[in-house]
Amino acid sequence: MSSDGASQYSNLETLNFTFSLTESVSDFHEEDVTVSGGTLSSFQGSGDTYRVTFTPIGDGLKSIVVEEGRVTDVAGNTNFYPSETYEFMHDVTPPTISINSSTWVSLSLSLPLPHIYVSSLLLKSQEYHLYHHSFI
Questions:
Q1: With 0-12 CB in 10 A as exposed, 13-18 as middle and 19+ as buried, what is 115?
Q2: pLDDT tens for residues 30-61?
């Protein structure tokens, strides 16, 4: 299973997944795919390649998997093992920053951020000093 947009994190409104099977199957349907945290649509395909669109609902961990015994090949054999589970964090909530100041400026972030660049901060003053420039 592969996706055109999901990695460890995603903020996309929809993601397209492709299922590549080792041989042709005769009965692979949308209801054979188990999802957590979203809905499926536009299921299509035949033989050994199928595609589906996943629409995440809200922020948080999302997953998609084909459980064992859901797909049958032309000889009547079902998949003995489940597919690899595809998991990712969906986050569409933008961070907010509130600034409190008297003599010192304190930035409070609503979400953890992987990095903040000092060059992104616009400081209007004659003089400023950075006493702590790493953010955790």
A1: exposed
A2: 999 999 999 999 999 999 999 999 999 999 99
Token look-up 């055109």 returns: 4
Q: Quickly count helices (H) and strands (E) in the chain.
A: 0, 10
* E strands present in 25-104: 33-36, 38-46, 49-56, 60-66, 86-90, 97-101
81: DSSP letter: S
CATH number for the domain running over 2-90: 2.60.40.1220
Q: Is 86 helix (H, G, I), strand (E, B) or coil?
A: strand
Using alpha carbons, select from 30, 43, 38, 33 the residue that is nearest to residue 56: 38
Contact 72, 78 (CB under 8 A): yes
Of 75, 77, 56, 78, which is closest to residue 67 (Cα–Cα)? 78
Sequence spans of domains, the chain: 2-90
Q: Tell how far CA 51 is from the center of its chain.
A: 17
Prediction pTM value: 0.68
